[in-house]
């Protein structure tokens, strides 16, 4: 009986793999994106996190295939991957992100992307699709990181006097450690150079 069950599972697995391997990847991606848009609209998902990862188990040493880098959109409220775009290399995330964004219904949502996605064209595309964004900022954008640090250091030193802002503090006591996160938000970017905007 056990052998029949195992063989049955194996046959089902092989059958499913055979059917899926015959699907057009582009058509499947479009259908999947359409379904995730419907799910997202139905539940009102608000935060979409875009991040690049290398697909685990995609490396095939025997055939000389390297691991497959992907850019994924994660619907935080739905806990669902809303879309993915493969890249040739990790460094090609910048070209994959706009393609992925085109697949998504962004209106009224907030999109987060790490520093790799901190690009003017990506920010404009998100805005044009009706969403807001939070982009990571590191030293990969000329002097922008230093200028933003200066804006906040000056504002904090003066107690944000005369600077319209919001601040949020979160405390988290998970995994045996206390974490306190403080956020300061302002739209007053008057001291940033025009090149950095």
From TrEMBL:
InterPro entries hit by this protein: ISAs1_transpos (IPR047647), Transposase_11 (IPR002559), Transposase_11-like (IPR051698)
Record-annotated Transposase IS4-like domain positions: 45-163
Domain of life, source organism: Bacteria
Pfam families from the UniProt entry: DDE_Tnp_1
Gene Ontology biological process terms, A to Z: DNA transposition
Sample GO molecular function, one term: DNA binding
PANTHER family: H REPEAT-ASSOCIATED PREDICTED TRANSPOSASE, PROTEIN YBFL-RELATED
NCBIfam families assigned to the protein according to its UniProt record, in alphabetical order: transpos_ISAs1
Protein name in UniProt: Transposase IS4-like domain-containing protein
